[in-house]
Amino acid sequence: MSGAVAPEAVATAPRERGWRWFVLGLVLMVAVTASPAWPAPLALLAGAVRLLLPVEQFALLVLTGIAACSIVGWWNGGRLLSAVLWTAAASYVVWKVPMPLSGYGAFLRGWAVVLGAAFGLVCLATASRPFLARALAAVALAGTVTVAGLSLRAPQGQTAFAGAEQMLTAEYQQRLASSLEQWRARSSSDTWREFTKRVPLAIERAGRFENLLVMLGEPVSASSAVGGTRAGPLVRLAPALLALESLMALALAWSAYHRLSRARVGPPLGALRELRFNDQLVWGVVVGVTILLLPTLAGYRLVGLNLVAFFGTLYALRGAGVLSCWIPERLAVWLPLGLVVLVPVLGPVWVLLALLAVTFTLGLGDTWRDFRAGTSPRGSPR
What's the rounded Cα separation, in Å, for the pair 236 and 297? Predict the structure, then answer.
């Protein structure tokens, strides 16, 4: 805590690579945070984004992550003023966010603060670990603290998750109703009628997308033993989606902090083609699949579903890294365009499922057989 960074350390410290993906990340952060205000023609797409992100105020998670990095940076010899300013800014926004201090508003504030604090503590305790290991540990710690808090506040006779499920169900219904109201106003306008005369297929596609959102966000019928209804699919997947969203927010905060400060708190983020993690994480997939398959563990299927969704996505990202390592750079731009072309033919759901199946298989196989062994980074000799 000397207040300054040694010049030789600054000169030799590895720097963040490029600005292209960082700027794209910032643009996406602003876009998804502003999704409730998207124009009416994009209301259905905005509804999908709002249902996929348990915390739709994504920028708030990034801000608390930057504040945590600035405190760790000050501890490592960075500037005290930077830590004070970022912490004050994060505290002000968390307090002033236009949400009530109960229900989803309390959950939003609590998760943002706990996640930032957990990331700061993990960074201080594991200074030699790479970013992903720290972020995974921080999300696990924040989840443990949150579950403990929910358990303490749960009424007698209810589980720790019952109150959170009711809160998220009400929040998702509100988001879905808002987006659908905006879309239905748009679809009844003369502009939409004129458009569908020229493109009749748009009515069918929009209707199917609308029905899909309702199916994913609304509660579904269930037996009377569980109250007649149960939470919608995306509410039941909220723990896994929240963990993935938090990892993305911490990655963007990490990248932003190192572009704003000279005091490093760890190595720069690597490229997607270099993405690897501890192979022991495969047990997350194994345990999740086992829970889903064994009838004797039917009561824990929600846990298994979230384990498979979270760790399966991590392995799909690892598989995408394998693909990006194999595909020549001059063809890498055309692959996403090819997928976009397939969307009108196969539909977005099948294209997404096929992409996830390929990348997950590659990522999982990379655990036992290093598919990138013998390859060299682009631009360097093998």
Answer: 17
* Residue with tokens 């699919």, as numbered in its chain: 233
The answer to whether the beta carbons of residues 300 and 288 sit under 8 Å apart is: no
pLDDT at 190: 87
Alpha helices in 76-200 (DSSP H): 80-96, 104-125, 131-153, 160-187, 190-198
Sequence-separated (6 or more) residues with CB below 8 Å from residue 65 = 115, 116, 119, 249, 250, 252, 253, 254, 257
Averaged pLDDT for residues 46-55: 93
| Share of residues in the chain with pLDDT > 90 (%) | 49
Residue 160 is classified by DSSP as H
Query: Residue written as tokens 């398959």?
Result: 293
Yes or no: say if 230 and 220 are a contact pair by the CB < 8 Å rule. yes
Q: Give the list of residues 6+ apart from residue 185 with CB closer than 8 angstroms, or none.
A: 40
SS3 content of the chain, % helix, strand, coil (to 5): 75, 0, 25
Helix or strand run (H / E) with residue 220 = strand 220-221
